[in-house]
Design brief:
- Helices cover about 30% and strands about 40% of the residues.
- By secondary structure, it is an alpha+beta fold.
- It has one domain.
- Helix 2 packs across helix 3.
- The radius of gyration is 23 Å and the shape is elongated.
- About 10% of the residues have low confidence.
Length: about 170
Amino acid sequence: MRRLIIGAAALALAACATAVGTEYAAADRAGYGYASTRIEGDRFRVSFAGDGATPASVVEDYALLRAAEIALENGYDWFRVVGRSLDEREKGGVGIGAGVGGGGRNVGVGVGGNIGKVGARKFYTSNLEVLYGKGAKPEGDDRGEVYDARSVIETIRARMPAAESAQ
């Protein structure tokens, strides 16, 4: 049992030590990265899926960044997020537990416990539904969050690792 616990802890530490996170790029074969679908002329569905080493805040930033890039690629100046969700899934890990039992002829005693999953990682996906527009950015209202595309790109790229922001 002790070997199992030590092995699980070593795996968890190794996973943390080698974790880099999903780079900002189109979705790969595993599905990590950004994707978009045009719903109608000025409306898109945009998502960014991160691997187990990509924090939720980065996943959300990268979805907004992709929405801003789509705006400029299609001649728009601003965009309005009219729908948003952040999905979380937990994968992997090793469940660790212990139990002791004993009993006599008509007597039984049992003790058990579980210290949870070791090494499990959370995978986040940010999903946006976005409307695009041209000209001056409208003031915020109850119809969604409004963003200036160029400002979003500048702000988020400034927070990205140097290799990624150069793309």
